[in-house]
Amino acid sequence: MLSLPPLLLSAGQASAPSPVEQTLIEQARSVGLSCTSSTDAELALQICDGALQLYDLNEPQGKGVIVDFLSGQSAYRRAKGGGSKEPIARSLGIKTGQPLTILDATPGLGRDAFVLVALGASVTLVERSPVAYMLLADGLRRLALSEPELAARFTLLHANSTDYMQQQSAKSVDAVYLDPMFPHRKKSALVKKEMRLFQAMLGTDEDADLLLPAALHVAAKRVAVKRPNNAPFLAGQKPSMAITSKKHRFDVYINN
């Protein structure tokens, strides 16, 4: 069972919601979230400066977690990354001038998906968490205002990824990308801020092993699984090959 924080409007707001806020409220209700002014929960979604952010209410001075494709890590990877030579691109078989259709079954904050889209792929994001879905939807809304062509290559769905892939026709996308939540033990800033909030909200993906057979069903060419270097193979299944980076490896399952 997912633990869902309340959706809050900006603190102390007395006026009627803006059009953006009203749209976010309606989207939240459509995926089962309700708006409240209560601050009893430890986590909350809050509309701040026109963007949706996830906050830890126990850290009032802390920054919110936000999906932002226009700056920060996403923009840096787009400008300074290795392009088609990046490990994630190689693991999925991305080549210049050969756009692929990719299903990202564990999109998180969408950073890896943005790299794939920037390299020319069309990416379907399937997210089961209503909160993560809302953050992604708001990030894509803001991306569309500045770079509509990039935003148009995304498709965002609210669904259980395993169920969704099982219901699709066999080999209906070129590739599937999986990055299931894995317990983080190192006390890095990322773990403290973003991953800690995500794990507090979602927990680890205890059903992650179910993703691989469903992904192999729907992928025409390959499935790439991002894992910490010390993590076991997903579902205990040895990959066709692995591409390693400094902190991660990408287990690649070639579909014949």
TrEMBL record:
Catalytic reactions of this protein: guanosine(1516) in 16S rRNA + S-adenosyl-L-methionine = N(2)-methylguanosine(1516) in 16S rRNA + S-adenosyl-L-homocysteine + H(+)
A single MF term (Gene Ontology): methyltransferase activity
InterPro entries in alphabetical order: 16SrRNA_methylTrfase_J (IPR007536), SAM-dependent_MTases_sf (IPR029063)
Origin superkingdom: Bacteria
EC number: 2.1.1.242
Metal-binding as UniProt keyword: no
Matches recorded under Pfam families: SAM_MT
Subcellular location: Cytoplasm
GO terms under biological process: methylation
Keywords per UniProt: Cytoplasm, Methyltransferase, rRNA processing, S-adenosyl-L-methionine, Transferase
Residues that bind S-adenosyl-L-methionine: 111-112, 127-128, 179
Similarity comment: family membership: Belongs to the methyltransferase superfamily. RsmJ family.
Function per UniProt: Specifically methylates the guanosine in position 1516 of 16S rRNA.
Name recorded for this polypeptide: Ribosomal RNA small subunit methyltransferase J
Species annotation: Alteromonas gilva
Taxonomic path: Bacteria, Pseudomonadati, Pseudomonadota, Gammaproteobacteria, Alteromonadales
Gene: rsmJ
